[in-house]
Amino acid sequence: MNQHDSTDLRTRIAAALETSRRRTLGLTDCLDEDGLKAQHSPLMSPLVWDLAHIGNQEELWLVRDAGGRAAIRPDLDHLYDAFQHPRADRPALPLLDPEPARGYLRQVREQALEVLDGTALDPDGPPLLAEGFVFGMIAQHEQQHDETMLATHQLRQGPAVLDAPAPPAAPADAAALPTEVLVPAGPFTMGTSTDPWALDNERPAHTVELPGYWLDTTPVTNAAYQEFIADGGYRDPRWWTPAGLRHREQAGLSAPLFWQLDGDTWLRRRFGRTEPVPGDEPVVHVCWYEADAYARWAGRRLPSEAEWEKAARLDPATGRSRRYPWGDQEPTAEHANLGQRHLQPAPAGSYPLGSAPSGARQLIGDVWEWTGSDFAPYPGFNAFPYKEYSEVFFGPDYKVLRGGAFGVDPVACRGTFRNWDYPIRRQIFSGFRTARDAAPSELG
Fold it and tell me: Which domains does the chain carry?
């Protein structure tokens, strides 16, 4: 790596770290001390726990591991170890108060930037440092917690404290889009072996052969989902797996989370405001069981993880898998709804410049999309830099989500990025699109 490239990489890393921190502080400075220390849902940590946990992870990986420096606050390691303390138990811990937590973040960041300035980031260097991997990992980690904190804000009761402009109106061609796009049979390269900041579960690149299939052009909308509700979809056991039926009954599911019926009008609560549910937006806050039931009701199915990625990445003209649906260019405001720029999904059919070669839109941003796949390692998977990032979650308990949502930062979102969660989870910004097998006559 020459001097110019090294300077550009350090600038990129510093910008990613600064963007993450600015968002973290924006999500916490808007609440008073009581609001930060409260547990707004047993599903989530108090926001003050996330605040200091972000600093602790940065200290562990950037200050101690990458920088070889002495520990700043070793007494905090146990308190902020996510695997030692379930979220529901964290309010009882002797956590740092908000102001000491902010001071800790500042102290850690000062040393982390000193480490960045003095560390070689050569591609052929140690894997943790090569092309700045560990710095990118920490920027992604903070942004992932920022999305978690955004979900906590959505669960929080009380007046609105977050604000953002609405997404742009749907483009003129949105109403004329086909309902589905055909993805022809054939191989494609899934995952990556070259993206320097890709995480271990995205690796290695490998060839997957798929038959032809049809995929929804856009995510399923609120209006379409309301048809499922009106047709008795929640009450009809034909559309639910046995596990889904049990969960539907135990949890009393009858509509997406945060929805309520006022006469004949569906309303939703969104970051402290109550408003009519917009029919043209992708549905959000549905669990995997709800998405699967809708797909069955519609005579379709959820796409597999491989089908989702092929539709999002394969360029048929070259046979190459792109980093994003539109190519390798970093996302802009014209490509996708990312980075908490808006606090809701954009209307279905938005972002034509972000379209995939398949013709599908909004595969990146707006809502995480449930797939039909369990979270599993790719062939040749190697845990790095620690097993607890991915390996301990592999198995049938978790379903894969793809594509990112409006609260995901671009640094933590790409065509290979994999998210996973329990199939009952709804507080996350989750939606879906459906698929169906292509008949031989449809493949030409």
Answer: 3-155 (1.20.120.450), 167-444 (3.90.1580.10)
